[in-house]
């Protein structure tokens, strides 16, 4: 297995210095430190100043650094909109970003990923990022050579204490500075740098802003990427991760008890407290999604209580530019398929596929679903041979990607299968919209 990537015409750069991971990829942000600044080379290019000489310069203070970064920027129109002045330092570029020329970016492709907390965004985003490079840049906002992932929590207009005082949840529309979010994301898509706020998940505070430049692909993820119409119109493709309530509770209990030390009572109380705002502000966004991954309890085991076996559905909107819907056997038909036999090993309770058209919020969708678990991932190539329009570049690429991530959550069920297909489709959409080509990360 060889790991590598390349975009025709793009310039290779050295790896990004390691930083704490992004909030949506399972990380916690940290307050401003000198070692989280952009590289000297990048700052020099940004400011168009002569190369530094050997003379050792004093380490800049945060105020000096911020002034340097914003010297070609202007204050965002909605920087003062948030309560308590928490976004007053937000800015947008006054001139086009030097990153457009340095990285040979024709047009940033913007993808939205919406889901509630604990719905699998982190795992899915890792699959997407690996599709465009072998390493995931770490940092509050990872900015790789080809892809940047932005957590929309950064536009929270209240810190944790402020939400508590105002008795408001992070899901509520009134907890977001949508005006600033739309202004800055539009600037980024149009080729301008931004000084973006930071919401620190570790401290619950709003930290000083960071510089984010345009990139080939910009993923905006979080609770509200499709809630505001202005932001929604910026998206070239959108994904909604949709967990059934029973599965969500099981997953959240497993994660929060094992990884965060929360009690069962606290977890259930948190889920119940968030439910009204989830149903009002988050769930309705799925009607705007181009792809929806639904995770439900299995129908193969009557009254299953463990929720370890899942039925997963991939709903794909018809007619989206650059997006060819994947299908099983015969496009547009309705098919039930049990693949267990000589070519595919199945353990209890087996595996069942379904494919067919359906109406979702009044729109035409094509749906593939799989109920059950795969016993041997290397045998997935048999399943892959009956799937079409998956976005693969060679026979077996889907199987190779699944094998490369066999230790990730959901690796043996439809969760990983459909997340991987959508990651492949995002690569395909990028190529369709830009005319560029991206080499496979895992080669045959």
From TrEMBL:
<dbReference type="InterPro" id="IPR006083">
    <property type="entry name" value="PRK/URK"/>
</dbReference>
<protein>
    <recommendedName>
        <fullName>Phosphoribulokinase</fullName>
        <ecNumber>2.7.1.19</ecNumber>
    </recommendedName>
</protein>
<keyword id="KW-0067">ATP-binding</keyword>
<keyword id="KW-0547">Nucleotide-binding</keyword>
<feature type="domain" description="Phosphoribulokinase/uridine kinase">
    <location>
        <begin position="111"/>
        <end position="301"/>
    </location>
</feature>
<comment type="pathway">
    <text>Carbohydrate biosynthesis; Calvin cycle.</text>
</comment>
<keyword id="KW-0418">Kinase</keyword>
<keyword id="KW-0113">Calvin cycle</keyword>
<dbReference type="InterPro" id="IPR027417">
    <property type="entry name" value="P-loop_NTPase"/>
</dbReference>
<comment type="similarity">
    <text>Belongs to the phosphoribulokinase family.</text>
</comment>
<keyword id="KW-0808">Transferase</keyword>
<dbReference type="GO" id="GO:0097718">
    <property type="term" value="F:disordered domain specific binding"/>
</dbReference>
<dbReference type="GO" id="GO:0019253">
    <property type="term" value="P:reductive pentose-phosphate cycle"/>
</dbReference>
<dbReference type="GO" id="GO:0042803">
    <property type="term" value="F:protein homodimerization activity"/>
</dbReference>
<dbReference type="Pfam" id="PF00485">
    <property type="entry name" value="PRK"/>
</dbReference>
<dbReference type="InterPro" id="IPR006082">
    <property type="entry name" value="PRK"/>
</dbReference>
<dbReference type="GO" id="GO:0005524">
    <property type="term" value="F:ATP binding"/>
</dbReference>
<dbReference type="GO" id="GO:0008974">
    <property type="term" value="F:phosphoribulokinase activity"/>
</dbReference>
<keyword id="KW-0602">Photosynthesis</keyword>
<dbReference type="GO" id="GO:0009409">
    <property type="term" value="P:response to cold"/>
</dbReference>
